[in-house]
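User: My advisor, Dr. K., asked me to get a structural model of this assembly before our group meeting. I'm new to this, so sorry if the format is off. These are the inputs:
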Amino acid sequence: MESTLLEKFDQLNTQKGYKNRSEAIRDLIREKLVSEEWNSCERETVGVFSLVYDHHQRELNKTLTHIQHQHVEIIVSSTHVHIDQHNCLEVIILKGKTSIIKKITGQLASTRGVKHGKLIMTSTGSNLD
Amino acid sequence: MESTLLEKFDQLNTQKGYKNRSEAIRDLIREKLVSEEWNSCERETVGVFSLVYDHHQRELNKTLTHIQHQHVEIIVSSTHVHIDQHNCLEVIILKGKTSIIKKITGQLASTRGVKHGKLIMTSTGSNLD
Amino acid sequence: MESTLLEKFDQLNTQKGYKNRSEAIRDLIREKLVSEEWNSCERETVGVFSLVYDHHQRELNKTLTHIQHQHVEIIVSSTHVHIDQHNCLEVIILKGKTSIIKKITGQLASTRGVKHGKLIMTSTGSNLD
Amino acid sequence: MESTLLEKFDQLNTQKGYKNRSEAIRDLIREKLVSEEWNSCERETVGVFSLVYDHHQRELNKTLTHIQHQHVEIIVSSTHVHIDQHNCLEVIILKGKTSIIKKITGQLASTRGVKHGKLIMTSTGSNLD
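Assistant: The format is fine. Below is the predicted structure of the whole assembly, which you can bring to the meeting.
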């Protein structure tokens, strides 16, 4: 491979905290594989969904809990953080097919009163060895 | 506003589960504001970071815990999920300046043995009212 | 809508050069509709693809031209810019189904010697009125 | 490197049309370097900007031309395509500092009547050898 390309890559990796080049290349490959995984609708995968909302919003908590309870086989866990007097962060971990994870998180994000909903598309890890 | 543009937007919103158009517009505005928030280095904000790794990997758990303990004022909570016999998912919630959140999560992601690390850039919610 | 949310949005719009709020909202809606358009495989749309390569690379130009000529019904135009003594930029405009545009541009990007290939997913505009 | 990770990567590369693995790895590295390049404000780089608009829109063409003429040292070329009876695509190639490219394309995108404006962040290629 061209030595100047590798030099620049090594410089960047040092900045980012990588100990060696092959670890950094492995990470690029895994990132690519994960993004491919999410292009397919039927792959078993893992998503992490974050929701920011005002807990004073009437009925909101109840609605969010209701949606989650309809999908107990997909929702693995839910962590709640009190950010300030008004705002809550809820982080939900989901495991299942990409299409179902997208559907549930879409429903949660579009619930009235939710200020920001965002999905991390990650992986079960079993395809990344 | 052009009526056909709004018609198409309403159709999309119905699919996504929105009850009305103004809620969907508010969400587009908030998404824009959050992405601007993360362009600045000095804004106080919230990040959610997911890590997938093999818990058999020697010393990895110790290293990840060590990095987190150096930043206790930034790291709010950490949730651990056992995905399968080999793979773990750890979800870390961080609150602080965008630049520091990016630095810590960069360190965690580049640790040897971490298969996939990804950051959700969300918000404290206080700027989204 | 909440007045402080709109205030922050108006501030951002002024920075970006928008003359009024409704134009900025229309743009958010259109951006959403375009991104939905590209989720479907069978929609007629427009892509703009940029390629950076070294024109000294043997046979590269011939290969790129060959790929393009196999898809004359999709490729609308091609603009060539000499960036420096070594590097060329070629910008190709494609019109057709999203799946075919992705396939052709994937082939061009993976050709040996191409340094950077990237696709803008835009639109025919006829769905954005 | 783990052999199963490489196997999956090779499968993906074959699908995408890559002839060999090292070319695919080089492309991942270059993609990373280009995205880093655009994080800095002061790097000399290349952008490709696409604009979709209705040419019947009064004064629009004149406004777009006026903005472009104020930056002749940055704008390299402009290609115009008639998509249908109403819609035009204009593709503008820009060379200069990332901050200036972002500013000009922001102005063009926010002009009233522009339906969709999108920027490809590419590279001069001179840092990708």
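One thing worth pointing out at the meeting: Chains A and C do not touch (no CB pair under 8 Å).

User: Perfect, thanks a lot.
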